[in-house]
Amino acid sequence: MIGWGDGMRNRDDELHLRTLDEPAVEAASFKAKGSKKTSRNGVYIFAGIVFAVVFAASLAALSLAPALGLWSVFLASLLGLVCAFALRIAPQWEKVVVLRLGKFNRVAGPGLYFVIPFVEHAAAHVDQRMITTPFVAEEALTADLTPLNIDAVLFWYVWSPKDACVEVEDYQQAIWWAAQTALRDAVGRINLAEVATRREQINAQIKEILDPKASDWGITVVSVEIRNIVIPEDLQDAMSREAQAERERNARLLLAEVEKDISEMFVEAAEIYEKNDKAMQLRSMNLIYESVKEKGGLVIAPSGFGEAFNNIESFLK
Known about the structure:
By secondary structure, this protein is α+β, with helices and mostly antiparallel strands. It has three domains: about 5-35 and about 130-235, Band 7 domain (Tetrahydropterin Synthase, Chain A, 2-Layer Sandwich); about 40-90 and about 95-125, no CATH class; about 275-315, no CATH class. It is built from ten helices and eight strands. It has helices spanning about 10-15, 40-60, 70-85, 160-165, 170-185, 190-195, 200-215, 235-275, 275-290, 305-315; strands at about 85-90, 95-100, 105-110, 110-115, 120-125, 130-140, 145-160, 220-230. The protein has a three-stranded antiparallel β-sheet. It has a three-stranded antiparallel β-sheet with strand order 6-7-8. A two-stranded antiparallel ribbon has the order 1-4. A hairpin with a 5-residue loop joins strand 6 and strand 7 (about 145-160). The longest helix has about 40 residues, at about 235-275. The two termini are about 65 Å apart. The relative contact order is 0.11. The model is unreliable at about 1-35 (pLDDT under 50).
């Protein structure tokens, strides 16, 4: 992997280096509206049951008037539809924006609620759970004009169903586009060398940009998390060479510091040996011993070494 100085040594863990043609750009295909795990089948089943009960009861009542004939079936069906439309339920996580004659009237749900047929209608069913929205910025330019592909995930929820319905046409699509442009804006403020090491700052900047817009739409942005950073392929070789040069430089500096420390210790040892001849003789004997202790052998030494042994013995006594 690559890096710039001390600040870029952790790039192996933070930056996924892939080409612009690789599947990392798959985030571009992400949509604000993903598949939902939960089901609203219970709502439809309840409407079907209401229709069936009202239809059966109405048909039974109208059958007492044989003159109506097929009209009784038609009227029973109409009453069933009206009741199924008027009597509804909303899941626990859902709020329903109800308009009366085209104007906002109330927010209904969760649970059972009523709608006046032909006068009121449910304009929007707003999910108030935490929503995760993947988004991407393709070829976003950094401050030094380097194109990057960055994909991230937005965590948000709707706190005001009224504003989400009335103030913006499609709040999910709006927050998706706003997050994408905010990501481009945040990336454009920093250099390529800072993108990986300042992820937290970029996340905070995106959230800061989104908050005013999202608040007007009744949305709260909880957090933004960058998933992948993709740099152009032609920059990888240059950045790798730079990283290798930086690491070689650091290795040589470390070696020089070690050699400096060793040389200082040698100087101190030389000063001690200079002041004490017996210490120098002991060191000489130690060097001879170290040279023959493993494999053994014959050591030919000047006659002065014999005198050194005698001096050492007298010194030890």
